[in-house]
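Hi U.,

Before I forget, here's the chain from the pilot set. I'm dumping it here mostly so it's searchable later in email.
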Amino acid sequence: MKKILLILGMLITTIALYGMSAEASTFVVTKVIDVPGATKQQIMDKVSAWAKSYEQTAKVDAESGVITANGEIAYPSPPVDRIQYTIRYVMKNTVKGNTDTVTFEQVMLKSPTRYALESGEKILGNTKTLETDKDKAAATSRLTHVAENLKAYLLGTSMEAYPLVKCPQCPVLSPNSEELKEHMKTH
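Structure:
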């Protein structure tokens, strides 16, 4: 009985340590956007409209001032062998007064399901945490681009400096039409 309790204790400790290390590896990008002269409700309405314009799933909690949206943007490299990696994220907008704090959470690198031409074998894609500095830098760059696009929309300035284009066949966003053309080759 003591051996069973000892093994159970070790198992629980291992699970707890694993949970702590997984939490520590969470990758987050945050940007604060001040919208002078705007009310909390005006900002919430504009953030919701912006998310819907890119057909992102948005959940609005008016009482707490939090809007969350799921998104996916093309990884900043051309497709390799017709495989386009993407960066998936949850964008959390916390609106207080005339400020929107944009936080990108649950940032993951996604590889799509693909098929081997010769055998017809299906190779399942996966979604994993960002592990390399290259992937983290790429995600930071892309998510900052998304936040700057939102900022331009909220401030009513030109979004031409930070354009976002949505793929007509899937939920992936891209910062330019040339890159979107490359992405479209993967469909």
